[in-house]
């Protein structure tokens, strides 16, 4: 299994780091079989697995349940589990407790949290102090959609650009081992990547981050909405619907089950 030291080396040697989301036993299994460097059991599972309109309803128990299932599918891959909204916002004591629960019960190798303001830096320090590696997340942070006013590219204005850059530097200083950058201009992704010694992983952050992450269901065409930063490598939604409807038709027409699908078939 690759670990945080290996990810640092990969950055040093400019070897792109590839991360994909996975949320359960089969997606974990497919991610591991494809040789992906690391998995994120993201709170995007709220939208792509549980059908919520955003990530805000996801609970710590949801994250533990799905991270554990992903681990069963990917026993030899480094897994980062998202800390859901309000699991690191209440107090440092509560933050440590929740990170520990996700780590021990979810069987993750690291946790991820969103934001870079002082209270988040304190959370990062407290979790790292428990020997739990932390990946941070800046730019378009989906748990902040209500305060951001929707899913909008961040860092377009100079003041915002500088604020994100300063937060990235502070996050490294606080002890995070990795930083996810989402929905920011390419120039900002490039500048942060050059200034940090920890690896940056981009999603809609341009071509110059140390690695890339995409949502499993987006890569495979299992979602209805396709953001600009997604490249869809298959259209599984269409394929699945076609295969299911072929099977349905065969059952209706008496073509399934066929003789070969039957135990001790009667003569017909
Ligand atoms: O939850 C998630 O899938 C994420 C990625 C979009 C980085 O945080």
Q: Which geometry do the CA atoms define?
A: elongated
Q: Estimate the helix proportion, in percent.
A: 40-55%
Give the strand content.
5-15%
Overall pLDDT: 97
Span from first to last CA? 54 Å
What is the N-to-C order of secondary-structure elements (H for helix, E for strand)? HEHEHHEHEHEHHEHEEHH
Main pleated sheet: 8 strands, parallel, barrel
Which helices and strands, and how do they pair?
Elements: H1 4-12, E1 17-21, H2 25-33, E2 38-41, H3 45-48, H4 60-73, E3 78-82, H5 92-106, E4 110-114, H6 118-129, E5 134-139, H7 145-148, H8 158-174, E6 178-182, H9 186-195, E7 200-203, E8 211-214, H10 216-219, H11 236-252
Question: How would you describe what is shown here?
Answer:
This protein is of the alpha/beta class. The chain has eleven helices and eight strands. The chain has an eight-stranded parallel beta barrel, surrounded by seven helices. Helix 2 (about 25-35) links the parallel strand 1 (about 15-20) and strand 2 (about 40). It starts with a helix and ends in a 16-residue tail after the last helix. The mean pLDDT is about 95. It binds 3-methyl-2-oxobutanoic acid (KIV). 3-methyl-2-oxobutanoic acid binds near residues 21, 42, 43, 180 and 215.
């Amino acid at each position: 299994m690759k670990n945080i030291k290996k990810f640092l080396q990969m950055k040093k040697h400019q070897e792109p780091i590839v991360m994909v989301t996975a949320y359960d036993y089969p997606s974990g299994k497919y991610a591991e079989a494809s040789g992906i460097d690391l998995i994120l059991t993201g709170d995007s599972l709220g939208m792509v697995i549980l059908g919520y309109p955003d990530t805000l309803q996801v609970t710590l128990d949801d994250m533990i349940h799905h991270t554990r299932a992903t681990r069963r599918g990917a026993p030899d891959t480094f897994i980062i589990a998202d800390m859901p909204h309000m699991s690191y916002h209440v107090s440092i004591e509560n933050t440590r407790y929740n990170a520990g629960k996700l780590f021990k019960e979810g069987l993750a190798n690291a946790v991820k949290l969103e934001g870079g303001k002082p209270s988040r830096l304190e959370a990062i320090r407290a979790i790292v102090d428990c020997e739990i590696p932390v990946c941070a997340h800046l730019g378009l942070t989906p748990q902040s959609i209500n305060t951001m006013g929707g899913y909008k590219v961040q860092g377009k204005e100079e003041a915002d650009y500088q604020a994100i850059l300063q937060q990235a530097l502070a996050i490294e200083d606080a002890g995070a081992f990795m930083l996810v950058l989402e929905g920011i201009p390419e120039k900002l992704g490039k500048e942060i990547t050059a200034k940090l010694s920890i690896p940056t992983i981009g999603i809609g952050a341009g071509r110059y981050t140390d690695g890339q992450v995409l949502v499993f269901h987006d890569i495979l065409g299992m979602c209805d909405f396709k953001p600009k930063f997604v490249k869809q490598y298959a259209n599984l939604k269409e394929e699945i619907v076609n295969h299911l409807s072929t099977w349905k038709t065969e059952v209706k027409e008496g073509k399934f089950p066929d003789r070969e699908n039957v135990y001790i078939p009667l003569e017909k």
